[in-house]
């Protein structure tokens, strides 16, 4: 069952009048050609002429639970009636709730995913923001950074809840859970930090559409062997808002440069680095030198048109973040394994996280999330 598009304005205008009552007059049902909508003169209502079927009383009344969800979606999440209807109105064919891209946020609100009490996500340990030029971060500035040990190499990841870390799938090919260790609350990985929290890994989930050759859907979820306890130096980043592209905003690229045993003398790999670059749209990405044949909706790009990429193969797994005016960080993307440092003018490609919210939330139900 869906709401007729012509009634959305009336819905928002009259929704408060119907709190606590059965919802009949201001809802319109979509039952194909079996029902004709005839507007009443001088009233913001619809009456229905049934032609071949009789709607039962259950079909005519929005369930109280669904109605409460609709109100919460409309006035708390502040989505439009068009978006909210997909979450709370049952289908006229199979009576199933239609879930759209916004499902992830609503799932959090409606209890399908656990929250971790009063904790907050996306809060850095540095209040003031400034233009970033590729310098080291301050100590534990980004408390969601994860240092991932994969056999003999070190890569970056990002903590999204109390149980899961996200990184690039391309860095985990040919590995199993026992091959991976994760450190949280770490800053200088060239020194021994006894205060960091170290975890073994219980399982690894690669995106089902990950293509190692093409580099698409280069995302992986790492399930820690136990939940982490949040504190000043360990807390998660926020997942992106559904549908947000962050185009035109300045993104912050954060992570350690991946290191190998032969890189021990390279101090640039010791501390995480941050770099601020604008998030570009498709046309700007192509103008910057990215091959349109290999650039699809899976990707976004950051950089300045006419300049070389500042991100190389060793930066795979680093996270692209967006800082809101309130100082809260959202996870925008993960750096995949397709970027090259070859002195050719080209922007940097990242794997977009937003379109994969359904997959992320589906596989992290046993973790608890912090709120914004």
TrEMBL record:
It holds the Pfam family Trypsin. Keywords: Disulfide bond. Transmembrane segments: none annotated. One of its GO terms (molecular function) is serine-type endopeptidase activity. Gene3D superfamilies: Trypsin-like serine proteases (2.40.10.10). GO terms for biological process: proteolysis. PROSITE patterns: TRYPSIN_DOM (PS50240). Residues 131-365 form the Peptidase S1 domain. Belongs to the peptidase S1 family. CLIP subfamily. This is Peptidase S1 domain-containing protein. It comes from Ooceraea biroi (Clonal raider ant). The lineage of its organism: Eukaryota, Metazoa, Ecdysozoa, Arthropoda, Hexapoda.
